[in-house]
Design goal:
two-stranded antiparallel ribbon; 9-stranded mixed sheet; 26% helix; Pseudouridine synthase; 7 helices; 34% strand; 259 residues
Length: 259
């Protein structure tokens, strides 16, 4: 039986690209193998959660589903910066200090509304015919103007705040990077994190657990980086879960065997 049109709310695991998720669906569900298929709203390899997959005639409605509002839960790690603004980037430790909950919340609130930010240099936005990340890999970002995008944040809720030691962070980074398949500099990045954190395993870093509701096109890793800058340091996403796309919630997401 040929499927003419379908919208699938699937759970994309951390470590997988959206294209790999489409392959996972085809491998798990023979009914979809010969259907046209695309996704609406990219999720980076380090992110997980709701991914809308459009099947058959629904592929022609991609712009509609791309434009839906999004909700995320995120862990933001302060005192570390990377060239990707998440754990899958080359890290450097940035000086930081203990800050009050009030200051954390004040600077988070300053991110609300509409702001224009440069896109992460490790993103798939085409520039002069090739994705921005390719310019970054070739060390040629200085030859182009990095595109900017207006991002609209409706709400940021502070859910929790804690500290993590360098030793625990080293293990977490290694585990999360090991789940990633494809060519994302994994070994070099993992070695760089290990070298950075092994000197003092008892050093600690702030981690904020937040919920963000935003318009389509908002990069949460960009918000993490900007939040860190406004606190006088830097910050990266250590975990990102998309919990809702429009009316599609994570509690209703289909899960597939990705072995």
């Amino acid at each position: 039986m040929q499927i003419m049109e379908a919208i699938l709310n699937i759970y994309k695991p951390q470590g997988m690209t959206p294209l790999q998720a489409l392959d996972m669906i085809r491998a798990s569900e023979p009914a979809y193998q010969n259907e046209k298929m695309t996704y609406a709203g990219r999720l980076d390899p380090m992110a997980e959660g709701v991914l809308l997959v459009l099947v058959g005639g629904a592929v022609h409605k991609k712009d509609i589903y791309n434009g839906l509002d999004k909700t995320y839960e995120a862990d933001v790690l302060f005192g570390v910066g990377t060239d990707t603004h998440d754990l899958l980037g080359m890290p450097m430790i940035v000086a930081t200090e203990d800050m009050s909950d009030a200051r954390f919340k004040k600077e988070a609130d300053s991110l609300l509304g509409m702001h224009e930010y440069a896109l992460p240099i490790y993103s798939s936005k085409p520039v002069q015919g090739k994705p921005l990340f390719q310019w970054a890999r070739e060390n040629r970002v200085h030859e182009i103007t990095v595109p900017k995008r207006t991002m609209h944040v409706y709400e940021i809720d502070m859910l929790d705040r804690k500290k993590i030691t360098a030793g625990a962070l080293r293990k977490e980074v290694a585990q999360r990077i090991e789940r990633v398949t494809g060519d994302f500099r994994q070994e070099a990045v993992k070695d760089a994190w290990s070298a950075l954190l092994e000197a003092d395993a008892n050093a600690s870093f702030h981690v904020a657990h937040i919920r963000v509701r935003c318009a389509s096109g908002t990069y949460i890793r960009t918000l993490a980086h900007e939040w860190g800058k406004r606190l006088g340091t830097d910050a990266v996403l250590s975990r990102l879960v998309r919990t809702r796309v429009g009316g599609y919630a994570i509690g209703e997401s289909m899960q597939f065997d990705n072995k």
